[in-house]
Amino acid sequence: MLTYQKTTIALCLAFATTGSVLADEFTDADVQRWQQQFMEVASEGRELWTSPKLGTNGVACAQCHPNAANTHPETYPKFQKQLGKVVPLWQMINWCLKNPLEGQALAADDPKMTALQAYVTYERRGVKLEPGKH
Amino acid sequence: MNTINNSRRNFIKSAGAFAIGSTLPISLVELAFAESSQNFTFAYISDAHIQHIKDNRFVRNWDRGLIRAVAETSLLLPKPDFVMFGGDLAQLGSKPELDHGAEILSALHGNVHYVMGEHDYYLDLGEYWEKLFGPQYYSFDHKGVHFVVLNSIKTYDDWTFKRWPTAEQRMQEMAGLDNPNGSPFMVGEEQRLWLKKDLDKVDKNMPVVVFSHSPLQKIYKGWNFWTEDAEQVQALLKPFKKVSVIYGHVHQIQYNQIGNISFNSVMATAWPWPYPQAYAQAEQYLPKLTVPMNRADPFFERDATGWQFINLANGNADLNFTLYNNSSRIVRYNEKLKRPEDVVYQDEKSRIIPQTHY
Lengths: 134, 358
What we know:
heterodimer; A: mainly alpha; Cytochrome Bc1 Complex, Chain D, domain 2; B: alpha/beta; seven-stranded mixed β-sheet; 19% strand; disordered N terminus
């Protein structure tokens, strides 16, 4: 509790003295940097998407999904009949890794899984969200 | 979850075997010889993409698709006059892949004619394929129809001969459908000159059927659903009364009519591809006439794959799609409207939800 109070005081002081660290103030350079960070991860995702090494049999995601088409990230989470429940996109990606790619599932927060989702979503940019759609 | 999936798969397998044994040959008899004694059928198997892993291992999923097509084709009664293989027998053009594919195809009865696909070609520019299957382009006559086979997946010489340090890399670059380092397909001048000479000898009333791997029409350049010199090839076909172009490569149902030329694609035995409209960033021209195949359900590994037999009634090609996990489709030439049409789904109101692609 004491620590919390100290932090609050410190933050108040910070606000009072230097306006430049306010969270809502960011520059074009910041936006560019963040965008660049995203694009780096998305292009890592593209590498993985086209890689024969992601699974064990040499099959790549892009073989069935050129430009990540027919993955429909805008419809997740959604009900998958064969899994019997509503799942987020990463669970469906893992289904593909295990089955057509005969590989291992990735953890939800594995940087590779983040990259795959970044790529898939980037290729679908501009399409409106339709969660649950079939 | 795995148990459920496995039991589903086994059920599908046995249900499929039952369907083959009990119903398939009977339905074919009626369709094949419905109209006149001149009619004949041929079977069309395409895009097997046999993929070598290493040693004696190949991707099981793709093997199964081709094995099933060969088994079902062998059950056709009456027997088709010949079988076409529409290209992309291999995934990366290697000897083990072409050999393994040829071994599976060896179970077919009768004559087989082959079309070159880019996955067969770009490792050694078709050298080993030619040893197994013969010339890369040729023609033959059968029961009053002139058949032409083109190698439509060639490209600019600079790309083929100068750009890549190794043949393996060249193959890999062309194998990625959506790879921006790829290059547009074309028939090329040499074959167009040959085609002109070949067609000069043919009566203009004789039906002509052209087999190519890529569409001899322009649909979507980004995935090479495209042939760069399509218009020039179409111009050579223009003087003929009845022309059909039948192509593989696209792993989906497409059909179109441009002037006197009917276009039909065939299905893959390996895996289905999305329609280009499913890629939100694409500018594409899927023929308006096409009623798409069903959206594929990945949980059934043979879904949206299959093979077809083609009935050349009155010189027009009618395609009968034998789809492993979907209802069969028939795309037949409509004499009145002079264009191919789906016999069930052509009308907007007849379509079903899975045919909507987005």
